[in-house]
Amino acid sequence: MNTEEGTKNEKMWHTAAHVFASALTEIYPNVKIAIGPPIEMGFHYDFELEKNLNEKDLEKIEEKMKEILKKKETMEHEIIPIKKALEVFKNNPYKIELINDLQANGEKEISIYKTGNFLDMCKGPHLNSTSEIGAIKLLKISSAYWKGNEKNKQLQRVYGIAFKTQQELDNWIKLRDEAESSDHNKIGREQNLFMTHELIGQGLPLLMPRGAKLFQILTRWIEDEEEKRGYVYTKTPYMAKSDLYKVSGHWEHYKDGMFILGDEKNPGEIMALRPMTCPYQFLIYKNGLKSYKDLPIRYAETSILFRNESSGEMHGLTRVRQFTLSEGHLIVTPEQLEHEFKEVINLINYVMDTLGIREDITYRFSKWDPKNKKEKYIDNPEAWEHSQNEMKKILDNLGIKYVEAEGEAAFYGPKLDLQTKNVYGKEDTLITVQIDFALPERFDMTYVDKDGQKKRPYIIHRSSIGCYERTMAMLIEKYKGAFPTWLSPEQVTIIPVSEKFSNYANKVKQELLENKIRAKVDERNETLGYRIRDTQKEKVPYAIVVGAKEEETKKVAIRPRNGEQQTLTIQEFVEKINKEIKEKK
Predict the structure, then answer these.
(1) Are the beta carbons of 457 and 451 closer than 8 angstroms?
(2) Which tens digit of pLDDT belongs to each residue from 219-253?
(3) Do 102 and 79 form a contact (C-beta atoms < 8 A)?
(4) Residue 331's beta-bridge partner residues?
């Protein structure tokens, strides 16, 4: 979507949100509306209502919205004083809270929009008139905490979308249905890769044996590859005292995203589950004096991390509360910074190329926002400008095409984000590479340089494959469950024609296993056709059918997922599939 289309749709969807709220307040006069922004695809509106809405209620609201659209009302904009706004919205505690927040930030006036009899505080932008909306649809009911904070009241949330014409809406619904069929949440569950359970909770998926095998394949590959490139592995605790996070700055800038353990009445016993591993590895670095000859040091860890994601944001494997990151921290001299950054990018490119997803990646240079320098970031403007200039120079030297995003930096430094989109077009960050100027100072990290003086190193925070769960989600959607042979949880399913050929099938399996080929025997009491179809449904790269002829000739009849059937000796098949695996195909 280009910028012009994005602006047009944002206005369309923002206006549609107001039409929804107008219809909602007509049908349920006691409703207390909260916020209703446009989102990446459509809009949502949060509200407090004694009645829990259902699908039939949505149909009724949608009909009311269509009635409002027929009136072709203008969107009237007005700026009013804070005092008047407090009077206008005096019966709505959510609007009053927002107005008080704005007043606390120095605002003296409030922007409002009026549509017919409906009035809402809002900055816009909006369409000039609701007549520009030709088709509208409410999509689903959900819930969300006020201001995204689980300590606040839980509200109802309705999602919707709007377009200029019915044809555009019909086309969008068709594309959405196609996307849903490719959603990793659907495919992953159908193929028994992962599941969730209400007894465990949101954002805590269970990897089933097939999903755990895929996870294992990826982690073993990455760990071996990183060690080839000079990384050394650490193993650090899942939690630490709050003191550690106060030194790192996470307690000040990231506490709301952390899981806190212990009683705040006893500060010495307050712990937190780790949201990242960097502070732990920095303490390992500080264990002993370091010389310039020791640098660069490349620490890596397959880190289990914890982030307190809001319930409305969680989805399948892409947004979870416990996840696994291919985490790394490079401690380097200033002279080594550009070379090591380049080598990090080379590793990432190798990983993306091997997985077949490099063409699906875009790059974002995430910078700090000077306006929020104290609230969101470590307050050192000079260091920020220096580190951002260094990163820009490196990115330009590497020829990376990127967009700049102010306000998206980590709290301790600028970063390069590798962005990807899911089947619905929602953008997520897959991998980040960050230059850190702040934490070496906070942790008093030094090395002795050639001149005998102690100096501060730079730190590169990086991942190579990103969050394994999110990358798995991307791969599930990319390949629709039909993974390349080297990645497939099962590479071969052996199907005996009948029970009397089970012994031969298991002998074939054993020979494949001895050649490090993942194989299983399907000897269920089902028809041959049923078992072949089941293997195809699981999208196993190869099915092997064995019967009297195969047992007699010591051969196998192979049915590739893609390709023609053929009969080979076991050794010929081993050579064929191992070539695919070695070449990562």
Answers:
(1) no
(2) 999 999 999 999 999 999 999 999 999 999 888 88
(3) no
(4) 297, 459
pLDDT at 438: 84
Cα atoms found within 13 Å of the Cα of residue 115, Cβ hemisphere only: 30
Structure tokens at 503: 């012994």
pLDDT at 1: 41
For the chain, the first-to-last Cα distance in angstroms comes to: 32
- Check if the beta carbon of residue 515 is closer than 8 Å to that of residue 578: yes
Q: Which tens digits make up the pLDDT trace of 12-35?
A: 999 999 999 999 999 999 999 999
Cβ contacts of residue 387 below 8 Å, gap of 6+?
Answer: 413, 414, 435, 436, 437
Between CA 136 and CA 62 the distance in angstroms is 8
Whether 405 and 504 share a structural domain: no
Name which of 286, 53, 260 is nearest 155 in CA terms. Answer: 53
Describe the crossing of helices 55-70 and 3-27 by its angle, rounded to 10 degrees.
110
Nearest to 493 by CA among 585, 549, 577: 577
Q: Give the pLDDT mean for 574-579.
A: 94
193 by DSSP, 3-state: which?
coil
Q: Which residues contact 236 (CB under 8 A, 6 or more apart)?
A: 274, 277, 280, 281, 284, 301, 303
Interval 175-209: pLDDT, tens:
988 888 999 999 999 999 999 998 998 899 999 99
CB 428 within 8 A of CB 420: yes
Domain endpoint, select from 173, 206, 231 = 173
Residue 415, class by beta-carbon neighbours within 10 Å (0-12 exposed, 13-18 middle, 19+ buried)?
A: buried
Q: Do 474 and 505 reside in the same domain of the chain?
A: no
Give the DSSP per-residue string, 418-479: EEEE-TT--EEEEEEEEEESSHHHHTT--EE-TTS-EEPPEEEEEEEEEEHHHHHHHHHHHH
List the one residue out of 471, 481, 412 whose CA is nearest residue 186.
Answer: 481
Specify the residue for token string 């590739």: 560
Domain that holds residue 541: 492-582
Residue 467 has, within 13 A of its CA and on its CB side, a CA count of 24
Task: Specify whether 216 is located in the same domain as 295.
Answer: yes
CATH of the domain at 342: 3.30.930.10
Q: How far is Cα 103 from Cα 82, in angstroms, rounded to an integer?
A: 7
Beta bridge partners of 427: 421
